[in-house]
From TrEMBL:
This is Bifunctional protein FolD. The gene is folD. InterPro entries: Aminoacid_DH-like_N_sf (IPR046346), NAD(P)-bd_dom_sf (IPR036291), THF_DH/CycHdrlase (IPR000672), THF_DH/CycHdrlase_cat_dom (IPR020630), THF_DH/CycHdrlase_CS (IPR020867), THF_DH/CycHdrlase_NAD-bd_dom (IPR020631). The keyword Hydrolase applies. It comes from Paenibacillus pini JCM 16418. Keywords: Amino-acid biosynthesis, Histidine biosynthesis, Hydrolase, Methionine biosynthesis, Multifunctional enzyme, NADP, One-carbon metabolism, Oxidoreductase, Purine biosynthesis. Residues 6-120 form the Tetrahydrofolate dehydrogenase/cyclohydrolase catalytic domain. Coiled coil: none annotated. Belongs to the tetrahydrofolate dehydrogenase/cyclohydrolase family. Its EC number is 1.5.1.5, 3.5.4.9. Pfam families: THF_DHG_CYH, THF_DHG_CYH_C. Homodimer. NADP(+) binds at residues 165-167.
Length: 285
């Protein structure tokens, strides 16, 4: 029997509806949440994502600034812009689209963003608070993964979750958030020798490895929930996840598609973080 599809688009629209209502209330108090997005260079995928973020801001009534800088922008020039945005009262959230050109140190840029405006949740202070369980702005994709699992009605407490991939922006934080939901978490990575065996033990399998269609049905326990964080552009221009959707959906439980799964949730969680930052910046929480 084919698995049920977890629609990130549907969940995203539901959450954006409530964000839009909250923004209207804030605007009535003369508070307009402001997001600044900085894009350096001409990476095609990044341009799509930044356009999606800008559109979401406009759709939800946020103030939005997009700074598109040439690829040859120096690290110092970028840091100067971040410093200006840190001090700009109309801006509650700042993000610098990754990846950056190789001559720019991503860590230096992330560290330069004010912790309170770090709506990506990448700043070491926000990451540290995530690790110790204190309040923090959560990284958008991991937060979106957890929201999708919860809204699919999946109970995580006591379940075995297997995360494949250990990146700083997805694998590591999503493992921590799964632990916060009392799941038992196994993290697999490029040096894991028995990945398929471990993956088949998962009640919930989260895949974020950046390899198109890598995970087939041999990695999936029948009925397991499968969350595909992959975002791979194929030579034919189509988008593919890390999961071989057509084969896996025949054995899995609820599964996210690509596109239309985790991706839209990343943007929505960014809007949610910006709203939170605006409320905090204006002393409303
Ligand atoms: N500063 C950041 N950089 C990057 C992040 C991030 O969270 N912060 N994450 C990824 C890219 N990403 C957000 O920027 C992102 C990826 C995909 C989507 C999305 O909506 N995908 C759609 C398909 C879009 C398309 O047609 O290509 C989907 O999956 O349905 C949104 C955001 C790396 N960089
Ligand atoms: Mg404001």
């Amino acid at each position: 029997m084919t698995a049920s599809i977890i629609s990130g688009k549907k969940v995203s629209d539901e959450i954006r509806g409530s964000i839009s209502d909250e923004v209207k209330e804030l605007v009535s108090k003369n508070v307009v949440p402001g997001l600044a997005v900085v894009l350096v260079g001409e990476d095609a995928a990044s341009q799509v994502y930044v356009r999606n973020k800008e559109k979401a801001c406009h759709d939800l009534g946020f103030y939005s600034e997009v700074h598109r800088l040439p690829a040859e922008t120096s690290e110092q020039q970028l840091l100067a812009l971040v410093d200006t945005l840190n001090q700009q009262d109309t801006i509650d959230g700042i993000l610098v689209q990754l990846p950056l050109p190789s001559h720019i140190n991503e860590k230096s840029v992330i560290n330069a963003i004010s912790v309170h405006k770090d709506v990506d949740g990448f700043h070491p202070v926000n990451v540290g608070n995530l690790v110790i369980g204190d309040d923090s702005l959560l990284p958008c994709t991991p937060a979106g993964v957890i929201e999708l699992i919860k809204r699919a009605g999946v109970e995580l407490s006591g379940k075995h979750a297997v995360v494949i991939g250990r990146s700083n922006i997805v694998g590591k934080p999503v493992s921590l958030l799964l632990q916060r939901e009392n799941a038992t978490v196994t993290m697999c990575h490029s040096r894991t020798s028995n990945m398929a065996e471990l993956a088949r033990q998962a009640d919930v399998l989260v895949v974020a490895i950046g390899r198109a269609n890598f995970i087939d049905s041999s990695y999936v326990k029948p009925g397991a929930v499968v969350i595909d964080v992959g975002m791979n552009r194929l030579e034919n221009g189509k988008l593919a996840g890390d999961v071989d959707f057509e084969s896996v959906k025949e054995v899995s439980g609820p599964i996210t598609p690509v596109p239309g799964g985790v991706g839209p949730m990343t943007i929505t969680m960014l809007m949610k973080n910006t709203l939170t930052a605006a409320k905090r910046n204006h002393g409303l929480v």
